[in-house]
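This part of the workshop introduces the protein records we will be handling. Getting from the letters to the tokens is the skill we practise here. The record below serves as our worked example for the rest of this section.

…
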Amino acid sequence: MSRIRAALLREPEQELEIEEVDLGDLEPDEIRVRVHSSGVCHTDLSGIAGVVPLPYPAVLGHEGAGTVVEVGDAVVDLAVGDRVAVSFASCGECEPCMSAHPAYCEIFAALNYFGTRLDGSTTMCQGELEVHGNFFGQSSFATELITAARNAVALPDDFPLELAGPLGCGLLTGAGTVRNVLQLTERDSVAVFGIGTVGLASVMAAAVAGCRTIIAVDLSADRLELARELGATHVVDASVSDDVVWDVMAVEPAGVDAAIDAVGLEVVIQQGLECLAVRGTLATLGLQGLENPVTVNQGHILLGRTITGVIEGDAQPRELIPVMIDWWRQGRFPIERLVEVFPFDALQEALAATASGRVIKPVVEMP
């Protein structure tokens, strides 16, 4: 057992309270990480709102980065002192995991949402009270965390830890969608709806891919300006547009080859589908709830258009995170333009900045 500080959610829609808890002993395949920083994501807000069903009390946070301080007996690929980013959990043994699609692990929900290990044990407690960690296999709103070694990605010494956490989820999702799912190239055009962390990662990855047209769509003029600076060739301000689809197709009259929905609202999904070229693909990434009915016009689909949902960019974190770091070194993936750092004690302020959209990617830094 080791005593740590963690942000506890005791009931849905309550503020997180930073309290002392005990972190338990490692299983053979696990590591203990001293958390340097953690990104704040809209999925954390969904957890607080009760959209993601969780047992309570729970510790959220799923974009952790820090230093390994202990390894289990069976861990061979990480060592004490390694700097790591921690991503989502997967089993490594089912068909999707074995075929390089760990985000579609057959037991993804049990590993990422249930707050326990598969055997029902928790990584944290307060005396006799079980505290449910394991959120996305980590629960990084804490000064230390326990995670399976396969969820952690070793980082080079030159990469700042305060930028590393978002690589494990938000940035992974946007960049992975462009690179792994849509497989965009210089021949392609793409429209990105929703210019938050995921949308901007999509824009930057599309720019890296050399896409001939990159159209950013959002309600915020400031975010659209940032999208231009990070690679968008055109922008559409949905707050003043009379017809977003018309404005997208004014740029690409035959429609775009691909569209990315980083919002999850029905109207945005419909717009993304309508602005596609024949045989184009819409990737929808936004989460608005586990039940989110969407109505589409079959006539649009009959033209060979495809709608696909994407989790975590359909990425293998140990493959894509080093690629994003290489892009960052080359100046083509400037993550620091998205990040604002908050002290851990200001976590509620960071969550509010996420909810309001004032900050694209808040990161809390541990003392």
The chain has two domains: 2-168+334-365, 174-312. DSSP finds twelve helices and 18 strands in the chain. The domain at 174-312 is CATH 3.40.50.720 (Rossmann fold).
